[in-house]
UniProtKB/TrEMBL annotation:
UniProt function note: Catalyzes a reversible aldol reaction between acetaldehyde and D-glyceraldehyde 3-phosphate to generate 2-deoxy-D-ribose 5-phosphate.
Protein's cellular compartments: Cytoplasm
Keyword set includes Transcription regulation: no
UniProt cross-references to Pfam families, sorted A to Z: DeoC
Taxonomic lineage: Bacteria, Pseudomonadati, Bacteroidota, Chitinophagia, Chitinophagales
Species name: Segetibacter aerophilus
Protein name per UniProt: Deoxyribose-phosphate aldolase
GO molecular function: deoxyribose-phosphate aldolase activity
Catalytic activity: 2-deoxy-D-ribose 5-phosphate = D-glyceraldehyde 3-phosphate + acetaldehyde
Main location: cytoplasm
Catalytic center residues: 89 (proton donor/acceptor), 153 (schiff-base intermediate with acetaldehyde), 182 (proton donor/acceptor)
Amino acid sequence: MNLNKHIDHTVLKPTTLIADVEKLCAEAKEYGFAAVCVPPPFVKISKALLLGSDVKVATVIGFPFGYSAVEAKLAEILLAMVDGADELDVVANIVAIKNNDWQLISNEINHIMPVIKSKGKVIKVIIESGVLTEDELIKCCHLFGPAGIDYLKTSTGYAEKGATIEAVKTMRENLPKNVQIKASGGIRTYEFAKELIEAGATRLGCSASVAIVNGQAAETKY
């Protein structure tokens, strides 16, 4: 299995250095990863470093907790697209999900979608599956799937529980066929990455990407 084309090579730690981003982009080009995923301040430099390659630039919105106002998320999205982001990984309002406020969730995605799609960008919605009940996870699939998103993403990597085979299978069973799944959080081995793909994920968010494709275990969390 060629895992490299499924991987978003990721660095999202709050202490990220320019040198980290330079290394990330160099590795992404060398290994042919699908994308790099970087903090918003590093979108512009990542775009420049990857010029002429097929590697996409992704960034995060409302990260990592998702409870910022939709107006703030829209501002982040607009700035990220101006800087050259190809893909937006948007954290859903987890507080609203846990409080059963599906109207707020619906309003949020209905405001965000037209802005991203008007520029032809890819949207991945992060729902933090590790802190959701199965019912909440299924409701997210039924709400976000028909909204026209490109990917539903399991995790930020900052919750106590990241991607699981069970969550990916549940998502695949309850999403429209055209909506893809990105698994992230706690992916440290080739074996686990392969299992997630077999369960239905088509993208993997990993900071240990090089170790994974080389069949080595990694200690990193995300």
